Amino acid sequence: MNIYVFQALNGLGLGMIYFLLSVGLSIIFGLLGFVNFAHGALFLVGAYAAFFTNQATGSFALGLIASFVCVAGLGLVAERWLLRRTYKMSHEAQILVTVGLTFVLTEAVVYFFGPESQRVAPPESLSSVLMIGPYPIPSYRLFIVIVCGVIGVALWWLFERTMFGARVRAGNERPQMLKLLGTKVSRVYAIAFGLGTGLAGLAGGLAVPLRGADPSMGVEAIVIAFVVVVIGGMGSFSGPLVGGLIIGVTQSMMSAIWPEGARLAIFLLMVVVLLLMPKGLFGRA
């Protein structure tokens, strides 16, 4: 029984990274109505930005900051000069454009950093193990839970309790009305898009000490992100949190029970949720 409790505790850290990754996708997909299949590639870029900054400066904190800032900036540039032109196109066109962007970003990472996996160790202050009762939990995973929890609360406040959040929601539902009120909708979309992509980059930076950085992690990330968003529900902020924790704990538990079935289990879970609750656990109509 102890091994399962230990795996469940470890799964919380993994689940919070999934939350950070998927809440950015939920912002872009659920609130802006844009299908961004390049989200996993942005997670990849964030991981390598953290790796490069950590190697150059020796600072893990600066690596995390760089993972957010670099990817948010990349997202703003891509939104302004490429993706904005696809907002009124069909979802199929959006998928083709963002899949193409995924290939470009992935090949750029391979060109500059090579195809080999790269590692970043957590700082010494987060390398210890803490005891929660009789159960050990790595300090770094607890750090992930705290950081992502704080970010989650800040995002909820931003989108549910501020004028900016109201403008983002209104821009998705009634953009013409928002224009009549004097708000520049394109600017609101750009900020929301940059924030969503920056969160994906930060998730990549946090994930590097757990699984390393390699060019294939972007594909894995986009699959997990969509599974979490589908289970939690699009356009919701509690949905990605609950969905991410469910997937993280499920994967961690299954790695102890049946390692070969860990990936299969999350897709079966998604199918069950879709059959019972097509909008997800907390999805909006």
TrEMBL record:
Its main location: membrane. The keyword Cell membrane applies. It is a multi-pass membrane protein. The chain crosses the membrane at residues 12-38, 58-83, 95-114, 140-159, 188-210, 222-249, 261-282. It is found in: Cell membrane. Keywords: Amino-acid transport, Cell membrane, Membrane, Transmembrane, Transmembrane helix, Transport. The keyword rRNA-binding does not apply. It comes from the Bacteria. Belongs to the binding-protein-dependent transport system permease family. LivHM subfamily. This is Branched-chain amino acid ABC transporter permease. It comes from Cupriavidus basilensis.
